[in-house]
């Protein structure tokens, strides 16, 4: 069974930084692209960052230049480094992947950017 478990969320001041992690089990991590999504209250879930099997990265325009996604295939871990955080970054952040045409999601971790 595929399990994705996020960690690292919390409260941070505007302009601050925060790091998120996603541990994957039940999947051949090395051969799957991995994503970070987020969902704010009253908003639809949006793709924040994606990293492919060859470490090519893609970012939403709203986080370009501030967020960095990475992966560690040995530890089977997906990471997201968030810098220069803004109040509008406040959301639940989710780890995501696709295996055999099925979507798999983590439980989500809350990120709140507020003074």
Tell me about the largest β-sheet.
Answer: 7 strands, mixed
User: What's the count of strands?
Assistant: 11
Query: What order do the helices and strands follow?
Result: EEEEEEEEEEE
Report strand %. over 45%
Helix/strand structural class: mainly beta
- Helix content estimate: under 10%
Distance between the termini: 40 Å
Give the low-confidence spans. none
Mean pLDDT score: 97
The radius of gyration is 13 Å
**Annotation field: number of helices:** 0
Q: What is the approximate shape?
A: globular
Structure description:
It is a single chain. The strands form two sheets. Strands 2, 4, 5, 6, 9, 10 and 11 form a seven-stranded mixed β-sheet that branches. The protein has a four-stranded antiparallel β-sheet with strand order 1-3-8-7, with no helix packed on it. Helices cover 0% and strands 53% of the residues. The protein contains no helices and eleven strands. The protein has 115 residues and is mostly beta strands. Strand 4 (34-39) and strand 5 (46-51) form a beta hairpin. The radius of gyration is 13 Å and the shape is globular. It has strands at 3-7, 10-12, 18-25, 34-39, 46-51, 57-59, 67-72, 77-82, 91-99, 102-105, 109-113. The mean pLDDT is 97.
């Amino acid at each position: 069974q595929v399990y994705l478990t996020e960690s690292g969320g919390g409260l941070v001041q505007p302009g601050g930084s925060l790091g998120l992690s996603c541990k994957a089990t039940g999947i051949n991590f090395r051969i799957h692209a991995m994503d970070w999504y987020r969902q704010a209250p009253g908003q639809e879930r949006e793709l924040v960052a994606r990293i492919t099997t060859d470490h090519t990265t893609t970012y939403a325009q709203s986080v370009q230049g501030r967020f960095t996604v990475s992966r560690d295939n040995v530890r089977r871990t997906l990471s997201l480094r968030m810098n220069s955080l803004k109040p509008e970054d406040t959301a639940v952040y989710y780890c995501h992947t696709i295996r055999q045409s099925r979507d798999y999601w983590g439980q989500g971790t809350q990120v709140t950017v507020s003074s």
